[in-house]
Amino acid sequence: MGADNSTLNQKNRTVSMCDDGMTVTIRNNYDPLHFHQVHGENIKLLKNGAAACRSEGFCKGIAFSNRPVLVGEPIYIKFLEISTNWSGALRIGFTMNDPMTMKSKLPRYACPDLTSIQGNWAKAIAERMAKKDSKLYYYVDNNGDVHYGLNGVEHGVFFGGVNISNKLWAVLDIYGNTVAVEFVNPHSMNPECAVEASQNMCLLPKNKDVMSASALNFQINRCLSFHCVHGKNVSLKANRTVASRKYGFNSLAYVFTECSLKLEEKIYIKISRTNPKVNGNLLYGITSCNPSTLNPHDLPENADDLLDRPEYWIVRNDTNSYEAGDVIVYSISTEGEVTVMKNCDYKSALFHVDPTQPLWLFFDMVGSVSEINMLGSSVPDSALSDADFEEIMSVSLPSKTEKANGQQTECVICFGEQVDCVVYRCGHMCMCYSCASKLKNSANDQCPICREVIQDVIRIYR
To answer: Which residues form the NHR domain (predicted)?
Structure first.
C-alpha cells in the first residue's frame, strides 16, 4: 500500500484482558482512530473526536477517520444512539481522497453521491445491524475486498473493488436510523468482540476453556485458494477463498484446495456460516486426484462413492459441532500422519495417508456447515522451493464462471436464469424475478442469503 507508515504514528503496544480466568494478549500497532475535522455540516464531534453525532435531519452526515488506515487494520465502531424516525442505516467504506481536499465539496450522501466520485467506496449496512451498544467492525484485505462483522461474529465479504495502491481513510455516513457512533479502541474491547483482522491471529473460540493464550497465534506464509473445479452446488467468491453451498441444496458441494499440500503444512479453514436447521456433518478428505482432471458432472451425490474411483481417496465424516468463527487446522506429517485441530485444540492422528504422492485436501459441505473460508497455511521454510515463493507472491484469478468482483450472477434457486431483481428490504441480489416472486408468496418468504423476511421484489435492468 502506498501509505507512508511513518505518518501513522504507529506504536508497539500490548494489552492483556481477563475473561473467565483466561488471559488473552492482543497486539495493536495503530493509534486509536478519531474523526477527521472535515465532516458533513450536520455532524458534531464528541468525546475529543472519538465520537460523531448527526445533530439534524437524516443526511449530510459524512465523516472520515483522522488518519489513513492500513490494509488489514480493523475499524471498530460502537452505535451510541439510534432513532426510529428514519429508514436506512450507517454507510461504511473507504476513500483514497484526503478529506482535507473535500472540505468545501462534501455531498449530502455517501451513496450514491460520494461513491460516484473516483476513489470512494461505501455501502449501507442492514438496518437490523444498527442497534444501540452493538459493535461493528470492518477492514479491507489485500484483494481490495471489504470484510465486516457484528459483535465478534464475522459476516464475510461486504463489497469489493477497493484500490489499495494508495492511502485509504475510513468513511462513515451517519445516515438514517444511525444518529451517533464512536470509534472503539481495540484495547478496551471484550475478547469476545475483539477480532484480529490480519491473518496472523486465530479468531477467539467459543470454548475458551480448552484454549491457552499462546495457542491463539498462528503464522500464515502461504496464500491458498479453492480450485476452480468444484461441485455444482457451490459458489466461490473473494478470489476463490470463500466457498458457499447454494441455498436449498445439501449435496454436491465439493471444493478442493487449488494446490497440492506440503508435508508439515498447516491449512487454516474458518467456518463462515452454519445452518443449524440442517442435519449432518461436514465431510472432508485427502485425494491424489488433481482436481484439474475432474469433470464436475462426474462427482457423486454420495461422497463415499469417490472411493470407487481409480485415484487415491480418503473420505472422513467430521463429527465436531461447528459454529461461525471456528477455525479448523489440517496437516500431514512427513510420515503421512493426518491431524485435525479445532480452534487450535490439538487432536491426535486421525488416519494415515501415502505421503510419497501429491495430495489435495477436499470438502463436501453437507450438513450444517454451509460456508467455509480458506485463510491460508503455514509452511516450514525448509519445505518451500523457489517456485513456491513465486506462487506465494502471485495473485489468484477468479474462474471464468464467477465475476471478478464476487457478485452473484446466477439465480441461487433455479441456477438457470440470471439475477435480475433485488430483495427489499435487505437489498440482496441473488435470484431471478420469477423465483423471487414465488419465494415471496410462499410460506418460506425469507431471503436465501440473510433470512430476512421478503417485503417486496424489485426488478432491475442492467
So the answer is: 32-186, 223-377
